Amino acid sequence: MRAAVLRQGRMVVRDDVAEPVPGPGQVLVEVKACGICGSDLHFAQHGEDLLASTAQLEGVANQNDDVDLSRDIFMGHEFSAEILEAGPSTDTYAPGTLVTSVPVLISPQGMDMIVYSNTTLGGYAERMLLSAPLLLPVPNGLDAGPAALTEPMAVGLHAVNTSRIERNETALVIGCGPVGIAVIAALKLLGVEDIVASDFSPTRRRLAAAMGAHVTLDPAQDSPFHQCRPAVVFEAVGAPGIIDDILRRCPAGTRVVVAGVCMQPDTVHPLYAAVKQISVSFVFGYDPAEFASSLRAIAEGDIDVRPMITGSVPLDGMADAFDELATPDAHCKILVTP
Q1: CATH topology assigned to domain 1-136+304-334
Q2: pTM of the entire structure?
Q3: Which CATH number fits domain 150-280: 3.90.1200.10, 3.40.190.10, 3.40.50.720, 3.40.50.1240?
Q4: Which residues have CB under 8 Å from 271's CB, separation 6+?
């Protein structure tokens, strides 16, 4: 079987991957589409730093403990797939059903996140295993490509839900990459009446407008905080210095939601937040209900993700796609179609 793997920081295609065999409670699926996530790009560049940082975490289970960067790494967690067969004693949807799922594989040994693994296949493969209890059938005849973007849309919905924003409050989204775009889509879904988006890239500003932003701003012209007065700020850049700049510039009482994941150490001035009584929330992932809500919103047309899909490549095109996604004006979301 063929699969693209991360090897020494580059994506390469293998044609000798063992065919996955579903166990009890599992299904074998054929991957139809898988989005390339920004976190995969970050992992390819900063995997060693990420593993070192997560190894120091306390109070949460560390799914990256067993990842060995010297071995091939399977990735791909934004997927839709067609059921081929079920494992022993497994009741599930019929073969041929298009499904998606939160990226978790349940086995007798426990739970494996379908994110970065030396052993657990992800969506950058022709076939993979999924957990039958976690499957969601794709409704309304939705195509496989848009269905694969359920996962990143759920990330945006979780950030917006965490903010507790009201419809009449102004939202400022800083950074209009895939995370920021997902936040904008969720804000529109919830009926927020004043959505402002800020990004240096004119291409990304146009995409933000297409996805629901009422106003788009170029921070190279002037600080967005000089042009709007947000109640909630969504940080979707994930680069050092951004959070501190937000704390320095935003109005008193602002609620700041950090959705961008910065891979490097960062510095903030707590005094800025204290004097202005700013609340800061860091968010990550989503819950199963938010995942299901995102799929329903896409399938019912409440979120149109098609403007986000700016390219499609086979497995053999993944190395070039990773390079192209480093340029913000070139693409937003490239789908892999194994």
Answers
A1: Quinone Oxidoreductase; Chain A, domain 1 (3.90.180)
A2: 0.94
A3: 3.40.50.720
A4: none
